[in-house]
């Protein structure tokens, strides 16, 4: 079992973001999280990543920070650095071996190679989302957590992500929240619908 | 170079690169400190001795630093880049130290212009005063980087930062002014060094708790 959640709760002041959520994800499994806006999907994923702490319940995640890749609502990259500079910085902090080769390969795969020396501030929303995916996958994480990963992607970008997720699902553990459940449904072996 | 030092260097270099591109912190600090010294030059009555001017120099330096600290975590707030750094498996104190070093670089750059301007407008600075400025800079940037990170996560960051930082900067002003005007300046330098040591260790140890829940 890679992730085990028992009656996990999260409260911000008096407002409940999550109430009594329980689930388990096996190593190599794929958890699909669905629910309307405000149901706590983002909160749950931030708890799984360790970016927030639960108010109640037990949440055990069997990987450390080095084994975790996260794509959130924000791209987590610097606007005034280029794609290459952002990935170089994160590659260093994540101790990625042969990071230049890995960076180049990911930028090629996500169609950003030609824009690699352009500042992120000049990127479209879709290009920024592709870079966020490159950053999350740079260190080949064991657990990949994706919060609405299809946001802002065009058909080509969404297709690249579909193929990437299919490959990842074969050997990695995935936690994905999305409104477009149909894209992930075939990969998911656990489903969690938040109300 | 150790892994920790390499992380700190990479993070500080990133901040210097961002400033070279955006140029929205250092020029503001330079203009502010020069404008403040000009205002003080006209505010002090003619015939006033040198001692009040040294006090005003420290007021100018602390508020210039405050201006830089207010901008320090802006790149991390945009696109939630701080979450990216917090998730990385490096020691989280490296994030603080990289930021403190970058802020120190900007402050020293502002002082390279401000101190000669002070000597021109008011009075020459002796060796102990310069040593006091160097030691106070370290304290300002280590403590300032911590409290500005605390303030950065608040909606009222512009209010919170001075409220947190200025009380903590009082010992630095006491030590700085003492090193500038007292015949026993060395005693104040020791006091500043002690402050730097204690508060650097406290900031280094507590940064992780500031950026995580």
What are its keywords?
heterodimer; A: 195 residues; alpha/beta; Rossmann fold; 2 domains; five-stranded parallel β-sheet; three-stranded antiparallel β-sheet; 6 helices; globular; B: 213 residues; mainly alpha; 9 helices; 0% strand
Q: What would you say this structure looks like, in words?
A:
The complex is a heterodimer of chains A (about 200) and B (about 210). Chain A is about 35% helix and about 25% strand. By secondary structure, chain A is α/β, with parallel strands linked by helices. Chain A has two domains: about 1-65 and about 150-195, P-loop containing nucleotide triphosphate hydrolases (Rossmann fold), CATH 3.40.50; about 70-140, no CATH class. In chain A, the strands form two sheets. A five-stranded parallel sheet of chain A has the order 5-6-7-3-8, sandwiched between helices. In chain A, strand 1 (about 5-10) and strand 2 (about 15-25) form a beta hairpin. By secondary structure, chain B is mainly α. Chain B has one domain (about 5-210). Chain B contains nine helices and no strands. In chain B, helix 2 (about 25-45) packs parallel to helix 6 and helix 3 (about 50-70) packs antiparallel against helix 8 (about 155-180). Chains A and B meet through helix 2 of A and helix 1 and helix 5 of B.
């Amino acid at each position: 079992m890679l992730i085990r959640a028992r009656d996990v709760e999260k409260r911000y002041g008096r407002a409940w973001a999550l109430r009594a959520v329980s689930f388990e994800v096996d190593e190599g499994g794929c958890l699909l999280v669905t629910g309307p806006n405000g149901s706590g999907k983002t909160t749950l994923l931030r708890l799984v990543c360790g970016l927030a702490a639960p108010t109640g319940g037990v949440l055990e995640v069997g990987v450390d920070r080095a084994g975790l890749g996260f794509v959130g609502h924000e791209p987590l990259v610097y606007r005034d650095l280029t794609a290459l500079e952002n990935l170089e910085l994160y590659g260093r902090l994540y101790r990625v071996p042969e990071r230049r080769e890995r960076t180049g390969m990911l930028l090629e795969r996500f169609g950003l190679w030609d824009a690699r020396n352009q500042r992120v501030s000049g990127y479209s929303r879709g290009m920024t989302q592709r870079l966020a995916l490159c950053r999350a996958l740079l260190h080949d994480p064991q657990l990949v957590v994706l919060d609405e990963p299809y946001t802002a992607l065009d058909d080509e970008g969404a297709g690249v992500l579909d193929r990437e997720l299919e490959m990842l699902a074969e050997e990695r553990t995935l936690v994905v929240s999305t409104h477009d459940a149909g894209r992930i449904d075939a990969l998911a072996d656990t489903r969690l619908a938040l109300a | 170079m150790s892994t920790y030092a390499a992380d700190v260097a990479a993070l500080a270099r990133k901040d210097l690169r961002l400033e070279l591109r955006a140029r929205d912190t250092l020029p503001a600090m330079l203009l502010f400190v020069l404008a403040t010294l000009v205002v003080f030059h006209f505010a002090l009555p003619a015939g006033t001795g040198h001692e009040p001017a040294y006090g005003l120099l420290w007021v100018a330096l602390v508020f210039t630093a405050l201006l830089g600290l207010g901008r320090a975590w802006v790149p991390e707030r945009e696109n939630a880049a701080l979450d990216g750094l917090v998730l990385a498996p490096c020691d989280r104190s490296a994030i603080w130290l990289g930021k403190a070093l970058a802020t120190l670089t900007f402050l020293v750059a502002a002082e390279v212009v401000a101190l000669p301007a002070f000597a021109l407008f008011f009075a020459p600075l002796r060796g102990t005063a310069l040593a006091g400025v160097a030691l106070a800079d370290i304290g300002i940037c280590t403590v300032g980087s911590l409290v500005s990170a605390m303030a950065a996560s608040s909606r009222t960051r512009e209010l919170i930062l001075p409220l947190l930082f200025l009380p903590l900067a009082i010992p630095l002003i006491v030590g700085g002014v003492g090193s500038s005007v007292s015949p026993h300046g060395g005693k104040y330098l020791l006091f500043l060094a002690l402050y730097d040591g204690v508060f650097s260790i406290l900031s280094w140890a507590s940064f992780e708790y500031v950026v995580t829940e």
